[in-house]
Design goal:
The complex is a heterodimer of chains A (about 425) and B (about 425). Chain A has 14 helices and 20 strands. Chain A has about 425 residues and is an alpha/beta fold. In chain A, strands 1, 2, 3, 4, 5, 18, 19 and 20 form an eight-stranded mixed beta sheet that branches. In chain A, strands 8-11-12-13-14-17 form a six-stranded mixed beta sheet. The longest helix of chain A has 28 residues. The termini of chain A are far apart. In chain B, the strands form two sheets. In chain B, strands 1, 2, 3, 4, 5, 14, 15 and 16 form an eight-stranded mixed beta sheet that branches. An eight-stranded mixed beta sheet of chain B has the order 6-7-8-9-10-11-12-13, sandwiched between helices. In chain B, helix 10 packs antiparallel against helix 11. The N and C termini of chain B lie far apart (about 55 Å). Classes of the chains: A alpha/beta (about 425), B alpha/beta (about 425). At the A-B interface, helix 11 of A face helix 2 and helix 10 of B.
């Protein structure tokens, strides 16, 4: 067994090397005289970023530029980390993916993996959705199963480069996707869940079944040395998937809108001690922001950025959460809002009062943290992946153009070369 | 006896009250001063004055005497614009208390349906849209039927649909492509294909032609012989014959280029007065649309359930069409976030990003929209004689940080920024 593990690790390292060979651009690039929004280390006016081997090797004013480096002068421009969409359905099927993300044959499908549904056309560098996303600075998306099922399956974080989904994977599985309160489809068929109680029961039941499965596995481990006839429990893909949740190996991401569904999600997280809970949409989160803050729940806001309370006052969902100390991400829910409009989703939050720094965090470092990749992406720091976007002005202004986009130090979009394409 | 007295008292109070309202209305003079006025039909006026009397713009310019009795709004450092118009919407039919009344799907041809019969004036969405500067919409049936019914232009103020209505019927809604196909195809009914949808329209138009011929013959004959009974009335064919006569504009929702061309073919065949709605792939056949002088109502977005058909949409769609000479109206996509009706000016800004001229973009959500909807004599610009539908914002409406400060409909403040 140990040997096998070592073999696996070796395989993994080999793959890593190969991927470096493919994506680790050996070219050294220096981006000069640019205003750097590092996200985590403030703003550097007229700074330089040095890219080596696909990583950021230096950031700051007065960075020494090696002779072999190719220079990019970006005076008057603003550079940010590559943008990350925390909740997307990009690439799900050739026709925009109406159903490829919802396996509506059962309401409980934790064994499903979103990467098996992503159509190459969605990712292929020449397809519209892929190219348009990159052209507006989106470099990483978290692709998720839809919200048709209570337990939809496993999400994946993808970098928007490569020809196959395997090339694109940054993290998989990222987390388990669930949805509260969405019972319409099964209710119309008279199948569980017909009510919100049923929805919660499905999650509870799946967790309890996973516990039993775990017990059976542990029992077998204990028995097998003494008893040669001992049999391991039958493999069960559903339970294996839920074991990751139970063992706190992966976080949970739950779709919910009204406050009752939000609190059901929170209750389940409390009950089963989920490793990390993030909520999607959560339009009524303003009613229970303190409850969410207390537990460190993260909210992925969007595509609806504002709502109205019972007295018809406008509520800026993102701003309200930040005010109460809840960490937020901002999403497009692509294609509900097209993938490339991620920065404008953030702009709307700013329009109604969110601080621009917070908005930028919500589409860079915060989603990086959500997927445990804060050491690789989400900010401009030495050692991080060179995923960068050069804007010709305020990144949130609609008229601002994206000039260049880098992923792993490679230019994946260049306005000069692609002018007229969009 | 007491009852009688009460009745009289009530009547008196009612009349008095009514008179009071009437009197107030008579002296209802409003002045907006010091603002940067963008009339849309003319050049902007710096620090201009607008005088509104009884809800109608009486005068605007630089040196206008301010009547003493007038209420004055100081708009210094603010922009003053005509109210925005959303030219194709299901607002008011999808409210909190049920809804989904936009498609009468018992039959793919329901020209006789009127959208005003599905509108709830108390739908909160009217209020939310109003607070974002939308003062007028065209409410239209959905896209599940081939011939959906009659649209209406509504001002976003009033307790009853009658109070809201500016024009009804404003047009006849037709839909091509996946909408009707998926609605009826799944039931094994006509139309299951695009051919089927075109046939439904062709058949309806020919029926309508025969129907109006029958009536014309009757009118001729009845001049000589008054005993001839009139033909049986048919509400559906009455509406369709209005469209055939060019008295009612048809709004054809189509996204893919093949559907757009089918629309154009039908327009040619029946000589319809038409507007294309959606038109995601319009840029591919911009010349064909331009040559026929057909306006388009488009969104730079391609989102929501229509995404299958809007996959090929481009942000430059409006710009390309406009450059070829097509009249452009911009609309939101009734979606969330960036696509929401509340962000209509930002949606226009997106079209500018795609290359559309700024003036054309602003006109596309105000005066051009009014022209295409047939209400340009009443709304769409800041001009003498038009309704006082006004948006006051703290800057360029196309900038994302700009906030709406005040919204007036017929000179009445319907929103004042409170958050």
């Amino acid at each position: 067994m140990k040997k096998f593990k070592r073999f696996l690790i070796l395989c993994f390292l080999f793959l890593l090397e190969v991927s470096f060979f493919i994506y680790g651009e050996n070219e050294t690039i220096a981006i000069k005289n640019v205003k750097i929004l590092t996200v985590t280390r403030g703003i550097i006016e007229e700074g330089t970023i040095l890219i080596e081997n696909g990583r950021i090797s230096a950031v700051g004013q007065g960075v020494e530029i090696p002779n072999e480096a190719s220079l990019i002068h970006a005076s008057g421009c603003i550079i940010t980390p590559g943008l990350i969409d925390s909740h997307s359905h990009l690439g799900l099927g050739p026709s925009g993916g109406v159903t490829e993300d919802n396996e509506m044959s059962s309401a409980c499908t934790p064994q499903l993996r979103i990467i098996d549904s992503i159509h190459p056309e969605g990712m292929e560098p020449h397809s519209h959705s892929f190219r348009d996303a990159v052209s507006q600075g989106v470099t990483t998306v978290i692709a998720r199963p839809g919200s048709g099922n209570v337990i939809g399956g496993q999400s994946a974080a993808l970098k928007l480069r490569g020809k196959t989904v395997d090339d694109m994977i940054l993290v998989f599985p990222v987390d388990m996707k669930m949805a509260m309160g969405r019972k319409g489809y099964y209710a119309s068929k008279g199948v569980l869940p017909v009510t919100k109680m049923g929805t919660a029961y499905i999650v509870r039941n799946a967790m309890v079944e996973a516990m039993d499965y775990k017990l059976a596995l542990e029992l077998y481990e204990k028995k097998k040395d003494k008893d040669k006839n001992a049999k391991p429990p039958d493999r069960d893909l559903k339970n294996e998937a839920m074991l990751m949740v139970l063992n706190r190996d992966i976080p949970v991401h739950i779709h919910c809108s009204p406050v009752d569904d939000i609190m059901t999600a929170v209750r389940l997280a409390d009950e089963f001690d989920f490793y990390k809970l993030s909520l999607a949409h959560a339009e009524e989160s303003y009613k229970v922001a303190d409850e969410l803050a207390k537990r460190g729940v993260i909210v992925v806001v969007g595509p609806r950025m504002i709502t109205f309370d019972d007295k018809d006052n406008l509520i800026n969902i993102a701003e309200n959460l930040v005010k109460h100390g809840v960490e937020i991400n901002i999403m497009t829910d692509a294609d509900v809002v097209q993938q490339e409009y991620l920065r404008f989703q953030a702009a709307i939050a700013i329009k109604y009062g969110l601080a621009p720094e917070e908005a930028l965090k919500a589409i860079t470092i915060n989603p990086a943290k959500l997927i445990g990749m804060e050491k690789r992406i989400g900010s401009i720091e030495v050692g991080k992946d060179a995923d960068l976007v050069i804007f010709d002005g305020d990144p949130f202004d609609i008229q601002t153009k994206v000039l260049k986009v880098f992923i792993d130090g490679k230019i994946v979009y260049d306005l000069e070369k692609e002018r007229g394409l969009q | 006896m007491k009852f009688k007295f009460l009745c009289v008292l009530c009547l008196f109070v009612f009349i008095a009250g009514n008179n009071a309202i009437q009197a107030e209305k008579d002296s209802n003079k409003l002045v907006i001063k010091n603002g940067y006025i963008v009339p849309v039909n003319a050049d902007p006026i710096e620090e201009g004055i607008i005088l509104i009397e009884n809800g109608i713009i009486k005068d605007l310019g630089k040196n206008i005497p301010i009547p003493e009795e007038a209420e004055v709004i100081d708009a210094s450092k603010n922009w003053v614009l005509p109210g925005f118009i959303e030219s194709h919407s299901s607002l008011g039919t999808t409210g909190q208390y049920g809804g989904g009344d936009t498609d009468e799907t018992y039959n793919p041809d329901t020209a006789q349906m009127k959208i005003i019969d599905a509108i709830n004036p108390f739908d909160k969405n009217f209020l939310y849209a109003r607070t974002a500067g939308i003062t007028t919409i065209m409410a239209a049936p959905g896209r599940k039927n081939v011939i959906g019914g009659q649209t209406a232009v509504l001002r976003l103020m009033g307790k009853t649909v009658n109070q809201m209505t500016l024009l009804s019927p404003a047009g006849l809604k037709i839909s091509l492509g996946e909408g009707p196909k998926s609605t009826y195809g799944s039931k094994g009914r006509l139309p299951s294909t695009r051919m089927g949808s075109a046939y439904v329209i062709r058949k309806a138009m020919i029926e309508a032609k025969e129907y109006s011929q029958k009536w014309n013959e009757y009118k001729e004959k009845s001049k000589k012989n008054q005993d001839i009974p009139p033909p049986k009335r048919d509400l559906r064919l009455e509406v369709l014959s209005l469209a055939l006569d060019g008295e009612l504009t048809v709004f054809i929702e189509s996204y893919r280029v093949d559907d757009i061309m089918t629309a154009l073919r039908l327009i040619d065949e029946f000589k319809l007065k038409a507007v294309l709605v959606g038109c995601a792939e319009g840029y591919k056949v911009a010349e064909e649309i331009a040559i026929r002088k057909i306006p388009v109502v488009i969104s730079p977005f391609g989102i929501g359930p229509r995404r299958m058909e809007t996959k090929e949409i481009k942000i430059s769609n409006a710009a390309v069409l406009s450059q070829k000479g097509v009249k452009i109206v911009l609309k939101s996509d009734e979606s969330l976030g960036m696509g929401n009706i509340r962000e209509l000016p930002l949606i226009a800004a997106l079209a500018v990003k795609g290359g559309l001229d700024r003036k054309t973009a602003l006109r596309a959500i105000t005066l051009t929209a009014a022209e295409v909807l047939g209400v340009e004599d009443k709304i769409g610009s800041l001009e003498k004689g038009k309704e006082g539908n006004i948006v006051i914002s703290d800057g360029d409406p196309f900038h994302y940080k700009t906030r709406i400060q005040r919204v007036l409909i017929q000179g009445k403040t319907v929103y004042q920024k409170s958050y």
